[in-house]
């Protein structure tokens, strides 16, 4: 392995953060069955059901899974770049993965043995592979052992790993300690590992719709454990142009199941259902008694998946039915990361406060909020959990109405949702849900039910930066018009009293499910759904792996998926965005229950790395300058000619690269160019080019073909006798043959006639 001296990479490492780790929490009471102190998180008393719902979503996210930093040039070595991973809980979304996204690996379907899941990035060159393995420590209730292992490619010249600040490190192999929570790779082991123990017991103070009587959100009872994985920020430096990827896998050493963020240690049964481009994995611990059947829970969640046409569908949804009676949980449900969640096993589906659906709705909220729009996180999840349960015919309108009517209570008369300082008694849940429903009603009424609040939801999911109040209102106006915007502004920015609509109004606007139009990208594995057009190739399949690779000036065509899950036809407007900016769009009508592909195109002129997205789905496209095709062989025919003869010279040109290639082929006679041709080739392709040359000088003539870098030569022998042209030869031959044959026949005929006449005269 090539390793740069540490002083060479010093500039590149200057951007890395040392120290840090996670802030030490405050101690709290021990859980039942455990003999250790609990650890309190910094989540406070709001929005606990979504771990990143407040503090992390009010500002721009920190560095994502693998962010390549600018190169640090050195005078004595190659440029050094830096990357980082796991510095933020919620990663950007992407089909097929790589540095801008993730593809979850489904939990193993088992009842015993280890389980594996992961946040992975598709292989793109070299990849750092991190594995977190969790194991209970039966002799020490309240402790979980973690093994953090790294497989590190050769181009990485430095790597540092952070373990939780409160962790107790029990051993390392291939790492040197920098401080209490930071360890530096010393290049002596493969894989390099850090072994540590953590206290999984975390508590929270929570009241409101999702609050429970206890305090725990993560626990080890001594017989089983339910916890969130450790954040292990990793930073590295590497050489080379292509970014070094990062692949994280979460495993259990014994019985259990692991998602991307949540880990259960203990015996489990696993139920799984795949539909609407999502795989739902429901983990039911051996010690759990569920109120709703696992099949019913999966059916309800997959139904919600189909009904919510708001983008941001994660390929993997990981749900644990947390044992309700064994622990004094602090919340009824808890959602973290992209689509990991746990819900207390006693929760039913037949209630307007459907926690199973509440947490699922959170997994579909990809947008970040500002202070003014923060209420939408819990308000919309509460509203949609209730209205989806009503649409599934699990509750009646009266229960639905009473649930939303909680937002009418006098305690909320001084609440302005856009001002969190005015919130009292979980106003963001209760008044927030009521205002969300009213906005939905106003939009449906203004558009004759052709559009709903889901259209606004869908638009917000496309924002890369936190959504401001002005942007929220603009999206409402775009969907429902100026009057609806003004009403939404009044109901969110002032303390105006709001009320629930009646059943007659509900039947008018919700009776038939209006058009529910959703947009998505096809799976990157569908190679024919991604096609390239250029001088190199025509309508060629370029999918099948991530990233998609193109050459400059190639046009990418994508068969975007448009689907209407409603019971009425509607208009669609599907847009293609590149790095967040819309570059193409198509409009049309789609019938109820229909699904169709709509091709969108964009030409990539400049090299670079691009995130191409449709309604929250995204793929990465890497555009490079064309590769250099090469001349690999020459053929000359014939190899022997007379003076003035013509020789066909054929060049074999190959492109052995994974991107299109081009070269200019030069044909030479005794080092003098007699022809040129520009050749364009698709990836991994070969072609031939032929040019003809006339050879007039006798002797051995050298003909060659080259690409400017290499040349291949063949010798042709030219004899001294000039070769007659085909026309001259044919004419001379044909003419000579006709004159000779005609004269001979005439002479013979005359001789016979003369002889006959002489003979007759003599007879007379």
Automatic annotation (TrEMBL):
Name of protein: Peptidase
Naturally occurring in which organism (per UniProt): Haloarcula terrestris
Chain positions covered by the region annotation Disordered: 54-122
Keyword Transmembrane helix part of the UniProt annotation: yes
Keywords: Membrane, Transmembrane, Transmembrane helix
UniProt entry tagged with the keyword Transport: no
Transmembrane segments: 742-759
Superkingdom of the source species: Archaea
Comp. bias (Basic and acidic residues): 86-97
Biased composition (Polar residues): 56-77
């Amino acid at each position: 392995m090539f390793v740069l001296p540490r002083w060479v990479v010093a500039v590149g490492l200057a951007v890395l953060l040392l120290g840090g780790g996670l802030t030490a929490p405050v101690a709290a009471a021990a859980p039942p069955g455990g003999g250790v102190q609990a650890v309190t998180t910094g989540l406070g008393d709001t929005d606990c059901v979504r771990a990143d719902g407040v503090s992390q979503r009010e500002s721009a996210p920190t560095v994502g899974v693998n962010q390549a930093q600018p190169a640090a040039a050195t005078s004595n070595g190659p440029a050094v770049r830096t990357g980082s991973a796991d510095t933020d809980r919620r990663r950007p979304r992407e089909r097929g993965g790589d540095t801008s996204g993730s593809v979850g690996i489904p939990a193993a379907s088992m009842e015993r043995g280890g389980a594996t899941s992961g946040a992975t990035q598709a292989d793109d060159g070299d990849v750092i592979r991190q594995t977190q393995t969790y194991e209970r420590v039966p002799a020490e209730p309240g402790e979980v052992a973690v093994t953090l292992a790294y497989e590190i490619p050769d181009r990485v010249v430095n790597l540092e790993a952070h373990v939780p600040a409160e962790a107790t490190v029990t051993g390392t192999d291939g790492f040197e300690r920098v401080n209490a929570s930071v360890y530096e790779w010393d290049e002596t082991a493969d894989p390099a590992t850090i072994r540590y123990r953590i206290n999984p017991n975390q508590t929270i103070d929570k009241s409101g719709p999702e609050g429970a009587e206890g305090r725990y959100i993560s626990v080890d009872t001594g017989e089983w454990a339910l916890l969130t994985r450790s954040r292990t920020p990793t930073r590295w430096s590497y050489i080379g142009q292509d970014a070094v990827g990062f692949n994280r896998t979460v495993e259990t050493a014994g019985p259990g199941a692991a998602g991307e963020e949540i880990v259960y240690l203990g015996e489990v049964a696993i139920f799984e259902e795949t539909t609407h481009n999502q795989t739902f994995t429901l983990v039911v611990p051996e010690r759990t008694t569920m109120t709703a059947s696992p099949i019913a829970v999966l059916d309800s969640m997959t139904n919600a998946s189909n009904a919510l046409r708001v983008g941001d569908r994660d390929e993997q949804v990981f749900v644990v039915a947390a044992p309700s009676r064994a622990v004094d949980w602090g919340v009824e449900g808890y959602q973290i990361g992209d689509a990991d969640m746990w819900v207390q096993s006693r929760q039913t589906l037949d209630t307007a406060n459907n926690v199973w659906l509440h947490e699922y709705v959170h997994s579909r909220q990809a947008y970040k909020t500002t202070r003014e729009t923060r209420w939408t996180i819990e308000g919309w999840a509460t509203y949609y959990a209730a209205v989806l349960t009503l649409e599934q015919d699990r509750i009646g309108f009266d229960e639905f109405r009473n649930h939303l009517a909680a937002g009418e209570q006098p305690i909320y008369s001084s609440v302005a949702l856009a001002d969190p300082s005015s919130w009292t008694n979980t106003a963001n849940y209760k008044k927030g849900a009521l205002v969300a429903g009213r906005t939905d009603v106003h939009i449906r009424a203004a558009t004759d039910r052709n559009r709903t609040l889901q259209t606004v939801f869908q638009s917000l999911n496309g924002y890369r930066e936190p959504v401001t109040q002005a942007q929220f209102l603009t999206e409402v106006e775009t969907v429902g018009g100026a009057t609806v915007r003004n009403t939404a502004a009044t109901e969110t920015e002032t303390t105006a009293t709001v009320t629930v609509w009646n059943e007659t109004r509900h039947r008018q606007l919700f009776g038939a499910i209006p058009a529910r139009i959703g947009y998505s990208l096809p799976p990157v594995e569908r190679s024919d759904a991604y096609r390239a057009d250029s001088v190199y190739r025509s309508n060629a399949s370029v999918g099948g792996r991530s990233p998609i690779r193109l050459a400059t000036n190639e046009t990418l065509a994508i068969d975007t998926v448009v689907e209407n899950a409603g019971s009425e036809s509607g208009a669609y407007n599907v847009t293609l965005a590149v790095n967040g900016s819309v570059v193409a769009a198509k409009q049309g009508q789609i019938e109820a229950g229909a699904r169709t592909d709509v091709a969108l195109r964009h030409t990539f002129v400049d090299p670079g790395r691009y995130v191409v997205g449709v309604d929250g789905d995204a793929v990465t496209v890497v555009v490079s300058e064309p590769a250099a095709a090469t001349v690999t062989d020459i053929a000359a025919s014939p190899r022997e000619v007379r003076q003035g003869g013509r020789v066909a010279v054929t060049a074999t040109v190959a492109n052995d690269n994974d991107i299109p290639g081009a070269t200019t082929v030069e044909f030479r006679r005794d080092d003098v160019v007699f022809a040129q041709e520009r050749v364009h080739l698709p990836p991994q392709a070969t072609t031939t080019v032929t040019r003809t040359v006339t050879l007039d000088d006798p002797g051995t003539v050298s003909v060659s073909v080259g690409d400017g870098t290499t040349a291949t030569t063949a010798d042709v022998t030219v004899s001294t006798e000039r070769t007659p042209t085909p026309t001259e030869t044919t004419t001379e031959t044909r003419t000579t043959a006709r004159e000779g044959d005609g004269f001979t026949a005439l002479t013979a005929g005359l001789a016979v006639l003369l002889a006959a006449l002489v003979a007759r005269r003599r007879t007379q």
